[in-house]
Amino acid sequence: MTPGRNVALGAAGLAAFLALGEAVPRLGLVKEAYFPPTSRIASALGDELSDDAFWHALGDTLTGWALGLAIAVCAGVAAGVVVSVVPYLRAVTASTIEFLRPIPSVALIPLAVLLYGTELPSVLLLVVYASFWQVLIQTLYGVQDVDPVAEETARSYGLGTWARVRHVLWPTALPYVMTGVRLAAAVALILAITAELVIGAPGLGQQIAVAQTSQAVPEMYALIVVAGLLGLIINVGARTVERWALAWHQSVRGEVAV
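Structure tokens predicted for ABC transporter permease (258 residues):
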């Protein structure tokens, strides 16, 4: 299927979805007070775009997302490489990782509020904790996938530990790492908005909560649409960065060729 046809089908699907959102409340299938038509949501979105408070909230959300993601990626990659290359460290930390990884980040909200209140560090705590595991686990999988023959060949040529990491381990692990970064980018946005919504930290989540409590339903849906668009943009951006970083890899070259 050609890219042009994919775009056309996507646009048609979006148009049908918007038309359905307009028709359902107009026909009385749901109350407009709870689910306003698409046109009212679009009007509310236009009002939000002209409001300085909206842009400040968007900036707060993106700040928490970007800082948390950057910390999680750096920490996850560094920890994954160290745990993998240091003898016995993987076995020593395996049970601890498996214990901590399934803990939901939202369960740490009381701790975050107790430590940092409703400020940015609370958001960062939740974002970093949730995103860190995505990167760490993928890094560990990537290192495990290193070809033993290539590893032994590097040793036979006298390459030191960090030279083997750079020339053997990293090229093998990078596709896994980029997958972890892409997953972490989406998780970081979810946790940033969740923290703002529950804790009351400045950002889109707080704006959504305020709109909901003040019965400004069209504005609430407009902000939810913005959150969805933000997630879409982040996902597309992460995939673009992934293709650029892995332009040499067979999976990306095959995808481009197709």
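The first helix runs from residue 3 to 26.
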